[in-house]
Amino acid sequence: MDEYTGYVNNYPLLLQKGYAFGFHKKKFNADSKNKNDELVASTIYKICLDFLQEQGIETVLLYHCDANDGKQACRNKLFNKWSDTIVKANTIVKHSIEVVIGDDTDNKKEMYLGFLTLNENPLIEEIKTEFNDFSINLIAPKE
Length: 143
Description:
The chain is α+β, with helices and mostly antiparallel strands. Helix content is 44%, strand content 20%. α3 (39-55) crosses α4 (72-89). It holds the Pfam family DUF6169.
């Protein structure tokens, strides 16, 4: 068994029930200004809800906020704002964590990760525990 297989086998719920998803912004017009499109949150919510319902009650959508450009905190804040709409709909649960890497200002980096699942998922608590452990171990520096 290789190192990767040994690692992911420690997280059976995420391995069997988890799917990763992502999205990015694309400017259609170089002259366009950043506008807050109110339909973006409801569109993403509908896509996630349809997928979760189609895949089954125990399905989990995993996400992380891209940190390549240092704007992960802004992405997390925006996703939290969008998720307020989702939580109010009372059909999807969002669980998120922040993992801090490094202990000084120059090398400190915040990573934002989370998952979405249906609120009637009977495995929510087990998934939260497994996800938190997985996220910290995934991001933590390897010795």
